[in-house]
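Colleagues,

For the teaching module next term, I've prepared a clean inverse folding example: a structure given as tokens, and then the sequence designed for it. I'd like students to try predicting residues themselves before seeing the answer, so please don't circulate the second half yet.
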């Protein structure tokens, strides 16, 4: 009598990734420009997987490295993705189910989403330089849920409602006011995050600005925040999977769990990505002479929060004091040495500290 193979504790996404055989980088924070990429036959370009310590159960990142003049093989898949362009210029063409085509041209700091399961291709517009893109995806959730590769990559179902208004592929969109004051910008394509107009969000710190994106009517989240020159955000915590990428400026972030005596630190600049682990306090500090911006991507957004924890986070939890049941530490409650450290770091770089809460 043959003993049946024990099949428990399986992780279909990681098993799939082993078969793909592209490099996998795992760390707290990663400099995406230093990640090695290798041929990825499915896409017909070079690629790598980026797994951050705080990526959670539902999300992963893929680095797409398009050689000069290259294009990815035609794709369609039942997982969502938000794409951020790190370097290079090119275009993307998608084919809606009715045969209609949409195309848009992207460059450094462009952000866009591919509507679920449409056929699409990325094209590198340069014959001399590579194009580098980082995609935040919910592929782990989909493969672990269905554990069937053909269902995810060879599924003919058309989600026609995800295409949205044709203007969403032109850089245009719709502003959706929200009572909390954090506006939502519904679109599929943002040409340049560095030039995008943000709205004041002082609840997160002096000079803080923010905008949230609703992309391709999906469950993926994206928002961009700005830290004033000479300043820093208030510390807060939330569930895992927020992938944070520097857009402009440079600085550092501190991470700690409640009760910890020491901090984990990540220094960031353009090309850096990190993801705070589940319920780990973190705080972002600008060491630039100009405002610094960062993009955060995750799964679960204001329209489709996906989990109750994410619902709390996106409905005000991250800007409500822990003393009031939220997840933010107000400036007056933070450890004194946090501000002292920032003053020392700013002084090294000749940055004037501008923190009214501390009289500077």
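(Answer key — instructors only)
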């Amino acid at each position: 009598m043959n003993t049946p193979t024990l099949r428990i504790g399986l992780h279909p996404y990681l098993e799939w990734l082993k078969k793909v055989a592209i490099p996998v980088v795992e760390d707290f924070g990663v400099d995406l420009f230093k990640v090695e990429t290798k041929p990825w036959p499915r896409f017909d370009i070079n690629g790598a997987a980026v797994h951050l310590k705080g990526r959670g159960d539902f999300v992963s990142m893929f680095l797409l490295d398009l050689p000069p003049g290259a294009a990815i093989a035609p794709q369609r898949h039942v997982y969502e993705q938000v794409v951020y362009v790190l370097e290079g210029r090119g275009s993307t063409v998608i084919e809606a189910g009715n045969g209609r085509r949409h195309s848009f041209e992207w460059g450094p700091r462009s952000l866009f989403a591919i509507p679920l399961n449409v056929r699409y291709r990325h094209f590198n517009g340069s014959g001399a330089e590579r194009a580098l893109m980082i995609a935040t995806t919910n592929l782990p959730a989909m493969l672990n849920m269905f554990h069937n590769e053909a269902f995810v990559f060879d599924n003919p179902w058309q989600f026609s409602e995800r295409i949205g208004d044709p203007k969403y592929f032109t850089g245009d969109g719709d502003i959706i006011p929200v009572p909390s004051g954090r506006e939502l910008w519904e679109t599929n394509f943002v040409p340049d995050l560095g030039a995008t107009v943000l709205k004041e969000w002082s609840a997160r710190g002096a000079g803080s600005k923010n905008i949230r994106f609703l992309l391709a009517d999906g469950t993926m989240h994206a928002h961009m925040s700005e830290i004033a020159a000479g300043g820093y955000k208030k510390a807060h915590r939330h569930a895992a999977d927020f992938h944070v990428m520097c857009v402009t400026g440079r600085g550092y972030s501190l991470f700690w769990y409640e009760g910890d005596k020491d901090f984990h630190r990540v220094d960031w600049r353009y090309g850096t990505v990190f993801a705070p682990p589940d319920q780990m306090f973190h705080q972002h500090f600008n060491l630039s002479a100009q405002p610094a911006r960062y993009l955060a991507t995750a799964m679960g957004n204001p329209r489709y929060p996906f989990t109750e924890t994410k619902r709390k986070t996106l409905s005000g939890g991250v800007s409500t004091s822990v003393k009031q049941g939220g997840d933010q530490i107000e400036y007056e409650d933070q450890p004194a040495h946090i501000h002292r450290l920032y003053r020392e770091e700013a002084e090294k770089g000749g940055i004037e500290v501008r923190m009214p809460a501390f009289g500077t």
